[in-house]
Amino acid sequence: MNRLIESVHKDLLPRFRIESVDPHDPIKVHHVPKPWQLLGAGNYAAVVYHPDYPELVVKIYAPGRPGFFEEVEVYRRLGSHPAFSECLYANDCFLILKRLHGVTLYDCMQRGLRIPKQVIQDIDQALDYARKRGLHPHDVHGRNVMMYKGRGLVVDVSDFLHEEACSKWDDLKKGYYWLYRPLLSPLGIRIPYFVLDVVRRSYRFLVNLPSRLKQLGSGRRRRD
Protein backbone atom coordinates (compact mmCIF):
# COMPACT_ATOMS: atom_id res chain seq x y z
CA MET A 1 0.00 0.00 0.00
CA ASN A 2 2.80 2.46 0.84
CA ARG A 3 4.40 1.89 -2.56
CA LEU A 4 1.09 2.51 -4.30
CA ILE A 5 0.53 5.72 -2.37
CA GLU A 6 4.01 6.89 -3.28
CA SER A 7 3.40 6.10 -6.95
CA VAL A 8 0.13 8.05 -6.89
CA HIS A 9 1.88 11.15 -5.54
CA LYS A 10 5.01 10.93 -7.69
CA ASP A 11 3.90 9.36 -10.96
CA LEU A 12 0.13 9.74 -11.31
CA LEU A 13 -1.10 13.04 -9.89
CA PRO A 14 1.56 15.36 -11.42
CA ARG A 15 0.73 14.19 -14.96
CA PHE A 16 -2.92 13.22 -14.67
CA ARG A 17 -5.23 15.61 -16.54
CA ILE A 18 -8.99 15.68 -16.03
CA GLU A 19 -11.64 18.34 -16.55
CA SER A 20 -15.24 18.65 -15.40
CA VAL A 21 -17.14 20.71 -17.95
CA ASP A 22 -20.72 19.98 -16.83
CA PRO A 23 -21.59 18.48 -13.41
CA HIS A 24 -24.38 16.49 -15.09
CA ASP A 25 -22.04 14.76 -17.55
CA PRO A 26 -18.98 12.53 -17.08
CA ILE A 27 -15.71 14.41 -16.69
CA LYS A 28 -13.22 14.53 -19.54
CA VAL A 29 -9.94 12.68 -19.07
CA HIS A 30 -7.24 14.28 -21.20
CA HIS A 31 -4.18 12.30 -20.13
CA VAL A 32 -3.40 9.22 -18.04
CA PRO A 33 0.34 8.58 -17.54
CA LYS A 34 1.58 5.07 -18.32
CA PRO A 35 1.34 2.41 -17.02
CA TRP A 36 -1.83 3.63 -15.29
CA GLN A 37 -5.09 2.61 -16.97
CA LEU A 38 -8.44 4.42 -16.98
CA LEU A 39 -11.35 2.34 -15.70
CA GLY A 40 -14.12 4.92 -15.86
CA ALA A 41 -15.22 8.48 -15.30
CA GLY A 42 -18.19 9.85 -13.40
CA ASN A 43 -19.57 13.36 -13.12
CA TYR A 44 -17.03 14.42 -10.47
CA ALA A 45 -14.16 11.93 -10.53
CA ALA A 46 -12.19 9.41 -12.57
CA VAL A 47 -11.08 5.91 -11.57
CA VAL A 48 -7.73 4.41 -12.62
CA TYR A 49 -5.61 1.42 -11.68
CA HIS A 50 -1.99 0.34 -11.87
CA PRO A 51 -1.18 -3.08 -13.44
CA ASP A 52 0.99 -3.96 -10.44
CA TYR A 53 -2.02 -3.55 -8.13
CA PRO A 54 -4.93 -5.10 -10.09
CA GLU A 55 -7.24 -5.43 -7.07
CA LEU A 56 -7.06 -1.77 -6.10
CA VAL A 57 -8.25 1.40 -7.82
CA VAL A 58 -7.56 5.08 -7.33
CA LYS A 59 -10.47 7.50 -7.53
CA ILE A 60 -9.42 11.09 -8.27
CA TYR A 61 -11.77 14.04 -7.97
CA ALA A 62 -11.70 16.71 -10.67
CA PRO A 63 -10.50 20.18 -9.56
CA GLY A 64 -13.31 22.26 -8.12
CA ARG A 65 -15.73 19.38 -7.73
CA PRO A 66 -17.17 18.56 -4.28
CA GLY A 67 -17.81 15.23 -2.63
CA PHE A 68 -14.43 13.89 -1.53
CA PHE A 69 -14.93 14.18 2.24
CA GLU A 70 -18.54 13.04 1.96
CA GLU A 71 -17.49 9.89 0.12
CA VAL A 72 -14.89 9.09 2.76
CA GLU A 73 -17.62 9.30 5.40
CA VAL A 74 -19.94 7.08 3.36
CA TYR A 75 -17.33 4.33 3.15
CA ARG A 76 -16.66 4.66 6.87
CA ARG A 77 -20.34 3.97 7.58
CA LEU A 78 -20.65 1.15 5.05
CA GLY A 79 -17.78 -0.86 6.46
CA SER A 80 -17.52 -4.24 4.72
CA HIS A 81 -20.30 -5.52 2.44
CA PRO A 82 -20.00 -7.78 -0.63
CA ALA A 83 -21.95 -5.40 -2.90
CA PHE A 84 -19.84 -2.34 -2.08
CA SER A 85 -16.20 -1.41 -2.40
CA GLU A 86 -14.12 -0.41 0.63
CA CYS A 87 -11.97 2.66 1.16
CA LEU A 88 -8.44 1.69 2.19
CA TYR A 89 -6.83 5.14 2.03
CA ALA A 90 -7.97 8.72 1.44
CA ASN A 91 -5.97 11.94 1.13
CA ASP A 92 -5.43 14.93 -1.20
CA CYS A 93 -8.73 14.45 -3.08
CA PHE A 94 -8.08 10.84 -4.04
CA LEU A 95 -9.19 7.54 -2.57
CA ILE A 96 -7.70 4.08 -2.85
CA LEU A 97 -10.54 1.58 -3.06
CA LYS A 98 -10.99 -2.15 -3.32
CA ARG A 99 -11.63 -2.89 -6.97
CA LEU A 100 -15.03 -4.20 -8.02
CA HIS A 101 -15.04 -6.27 -11.19
CA GLY A 102 -18.00 -6.42 -13.53
CA VAL A 103 -19.98 -4.68 -16.26
CA THR A 104 -22.25 -1.71 -15.60
CA LEU A 105 -25.91 -2.28 -16.40
CA TYR A 106 -25.56 0.56 -18.90
CA ASP A 107 -22.85 -1.39 -20.75
CA CYS A 108 -24.84 -4.62 -20.41
CA MET A 109 -27.61 -3.00 -22.45
CA GLN A 110 -25.15 -1.96 -25.13
CA ARG A 111 -23.56 -5.42 -25.30
CA GLY A 112 -26.84 -7.29 -25.23
CA LEU A 113 -25.89 -9.13 -22.02
CA ARG A 114 -28.77 -10.66 -20.11
CA ILE A 115 -29.33 -9.07 -16.69
CA PRO A 116 -30.84 -11.66 -14.33
CA LYS A 117 -33.35 -10.72 -11.66
CA GLN A 118 -30.80 -11.65 -8.96
CA VAL A 119 -28.71 -8.60 -9.91
CA ILE A 120 -31.62 -6.25 -9.19
CA GLN A 121 -32.42 -8.03 -5.93
CA ASP A 122 -28.77 -7.85 -4.79
CA ILE A 123 -28.69 -4.10 -5.40
CA ASP A 124 -31.99 -3.63 -3.57
CA GLN A 125 -30.62 -5.50 -0.56
CA ALA A 126 -27.38 -3.51 -0.65
CA LEU A 127 -29.29 -0.22 -0.67
CA ASP A 128 -31.40 -1.39 2.28
CA TYR A 129 -28.16 -2.20 4.13
CA ALA A 130 -26.90 1.32 3.43
CA ARG A 131 -30.11 2.83 4.81
CA LYS A 132 -29.69 0.86 8.01
CA ARG A 133 -26.24 2.44 8.30
CA GLY A 134 -27.80 5.92 8.29
CA LEU A 135 -27.18 6.58 4.59
CA HIS A 136 -29.51 7.73 1.83
CA PRO A 137 -28.91 5.94 -1.49
CA HIS A 138 -28.87 8.67 -4.11
CA ASP A 139 -28.06 8.86 -7.82
CA VAL A 140 -28.18 5.09 -8.29
CA HIS A 141 -28.52 4.49 -12.03
CA GLY A 142 -27.29 2.23 -14.82
CA ARG A 143 -23.76 3.65 -14.87
CA ASN A 144 -23.33 3.29 -11.10
CA VAL A 145 -24.31 -0.35 -10.65
CA MET A 146 -22.65 -3.46 -12.08
CA MET A 147 -23.17 -7.14 -12.74
CA TYR A 148 -20.48 -9.70 -11.96
CA LYS A 149 -21.08 -13.43 -12.33
CA GLY A 150 -24.81 -12.88 -12.12
CA ARG A 151 -24.68 -10.79 -8.93
CA GLY A 152 -25.31 -7.09 -8.40
CA LEU A 153 -22.80 -4.50 -7.19
CA VAL A 154 -23.08 -0.81 -6.33
CA VAL A 155 -20.12 1.12 -7.69
CA ASP A 156 -20.66 4.78 -6.81
CA VAL A 157 -21.73 5.76 -3.28
CA SER A 158 -20.43 9.33 -3.30
CA ASP A 159 -23.91 10.89 -2.95
CA PHE A 160 -25.20 8.63 -0.19
CA LEU A 161 -25.23 11.48 2.36
CA HIS A 162 -27.78 13.48 0.32
CA GLU A 163 -31.08 13.33 2.14
CA GLU A 164 -33.34 14.56 -0.63
CA ALA A 165 -35.49 11.98 -2.36
CA CYS A 166 -34.08 10.32 -5.49
CA SER A 167 -36.20 8.05 -7.69
CA LYS A 168 -33.53 7.00 -10.23
CA TRP A 169 -33.16 3.44 -8.94
CA ASP A 170 -36.92 2.93 -8.61
CA ASP A 171 -37.41 4.28 -12.13
CA LEU A 172 -34.68 1.98 -13.46
CA LYS A 173 -36.37 -1.00 -11.82
CA LYS A 174 -39.69 -0.08 -13.45
CA GLY A 175 -37.98 -0.05 -16.83
CA TYR A 176 -36.34 -3.38 -16.00
CA TYR A 177 -39.56 -5.17 -15.03
CA TRP A 178 -41.94 -3.49 -17.47
CA LEU A 179 -39.77 -3.26 -20.58
CA TYR A 180 -36.46 -5.10 -20.29
CA ARG A 181 -37.53 -8.50 -18.91
CA PRO A 182 -40.62 -9.08 -21.08
CA LEU A 183 -39.29 -7.55 -24.34
CA LEU A 184 -35.56 -6.80 -24.59
CA SER A 185 -34.01 -9.62 -22.58
CA PRO A 186 -35.52 -12.52 -24.58
CA LEU A 187 -34.37 -10.93 -27.84
CA GLY A 188 -30.83 -10.15 -26.67
CA ILE A 189 -30.96 -6.80 -28.45
CA ARG A 190 -27.86 -4.62 -28.38
CA ILE A 191 -28.80 -0.98 -27.81
CA PRO A 192 -26.26 1.51 -29.25
CA TYR A 193 -24.72 4.02 -26.88
CA PHE A 194 -26.21 6.98 -28.74
CA VAL A 195 -29.70 5.56 -28.11
CA LEU A 196 -28.90 4.98 -24.44
CA ASP A 197 -27.60 8.55 -24.17
CA VAL A 198 -30.81 9.91 -25.74
CA VAL A 199 -32.83 7.95 -23.18
CA ARG A 200 -30.60 9.20 -20.36
CA ARG A 201 -30.85 12.84 -21.41
CA SER A 202 -34.60 12.60 -22.02
CA TYR A 203 -35.11 11.05 -18.59
CA ARG A 204 -33.06 13.79 -16.95
CA PHE A 205 -35.08 16.45 -18.79
CA LEU A 206 -38.41 14.94 -17.68
CA VAL A 207 -37.28 14.56 -14.07
CA ASN A 208 -36.13 18.19 -13.93
CA LEU A 209 -39.11 19.56 -15.85
CA PRO A 210 -41.44 20.15 -12.84
CA SER A 211 -38.81 22.23 -11.01
CA ARG A 212 -38.05 24.20 -14.16
CA LEU A 213 -41.73 24.93 -14.72
CA LYS A 214 -42.06 25.99 -11.07
CA GLN A 215 -39.11 28.38 -11.43
CA LEU A 216 -40.58 29.76 -14.64
CA GLY A 217 -43.94 30.35 -12.93
CA SER A 218 -42.27 32.07 -9.97
CA GLY A 219 -40.34 34.34 -12.33
CA ARG A 220 -43.51 35.36 -14.14
CA ARG A 221 -45.33 36.14 -10.88
CA ARG A 222 -42.45 38.34 -9.74
CA ARG A 223 -42.55 40.26 -13.03
CA ASP A 224 -46.29 40.73 -12.70
UniProtKB/TrEMBL annotation:
The lineage of its organism: Bacteria, Bacillati, Cyanobacteriota, Cyanophyceae, Nostocales. One of its GO terms (molecular function) is protein serine/threonine kinase activity. The keyword DNA damage does not apply. Keywords: Kinase, Serine/threonine-protein kinase, Transferase. Gene3D superfamilies: Transferase(Phosphotransferase) domain 1. It comes from the Bacteria. InterPro entries: Kinase-like_dom_sf, Meiotic_Drive_Suppr_Kinase. It comes from Brasilonema bromeliae SPC951. This is Serine/threonine protein kinase.
